[in-house]
Amino acid sequence: MGATQTRPEPQYQDLVEATGFSLEQIKNLHKRFEQLSGNADTISRENLERIPALANNPIKTQIIEAFFDKRNQHGNELGSYEAIGFKEFLMVMSHFRPPTLRTTEEEKEAMREEKVRFLFNMHDTDGDGKITLQEYRRVVEELLSKSGTIGQEAARAIADAAMLEVASTNVPNMGPDDFYEGITFEHFQQILKGLEMESRMHIRFLDASTAHGCCRK
After folding, report:
1. What positions does the domain EF-hand occupy (predicted)?
2. Fewest CB within 10 angstroms: 43, 52, 112, 138, which?
């Protein structure tokens, strides 16, 4: 279940409009794609697994899976790729593109929503449109327990308490026996409201004199 082939340089131009990257940025990102893939037409999870800067990242799995998640191709398709070509790689990278001086306020808002959606998809691993307690637990446990300063049970307790707080905020009239199905995208937007996204979403592990940053929260 692969993806499209790597595009030759004369065909870069059609990706400028699709991603918002400049032609020079696309050329640079293609060089990094070739480094990661070993000059192959596609990148696999194994290629990204070998990136040294990702080795100790507590959400390494979620970051890698985000590159193969079809939802991050700016469409509504669910599922994941076994491998991705340059176009798919570039579409994922476009979620991390910062605004320029020419970016309008309307465009900035659209870019922010894309970034929030990208983060939401990383947590909503089954693609059902909700971040469930189980999914939330998994991320919090990985973030906290892998730091070596807190055990898995303590991390789970923190996740449960945080989810309960989110539930009480988003559904204030919940009864004691009501079940909170999970965080919707709308709830997730409210949680991140006011959070400055540009300094918190970048891609340092792809750095090759081209792109800078890494997903952090």
Report:
1. 111-146
2. 52
Q: How far apart are CA 146 and CA 197, in angstroms?
A: 25
Rounded CA-CA distance 159/216 in Å is 18
Using alpha carbons, select from 87, 72, 49 the residue that is nearest to residue 205: 49
With the CA atoms of 60, 125, 158 and 174 taken in that order, what torsion angle do they form, in degrees rounded to the nearest 10?
Answer: 160
pLDDT, one tens digit per residue, over 24-70 is 999 999 999 999 999 999 999 999 999 888 888 878 888 899 999 99
Listed by start position, the domains of the chain span 9-101+197-206, 132-182
CB 16 within 8 A of CB 23: yes
How is domain 9-101+197-206 classified at the CATH fold level?
Recoverin; domain 1 (1.10.238)
Tokens of 13: 């131009």
139-171 pLDDT, tens digit each: 877 777 665 667 777 877 888 887 777 777 777
Amino acid code (one letter) for 134: Q
SS3 at position 43: strand
Measured distance CA(68)–CA(80) in Å, rounded = 5
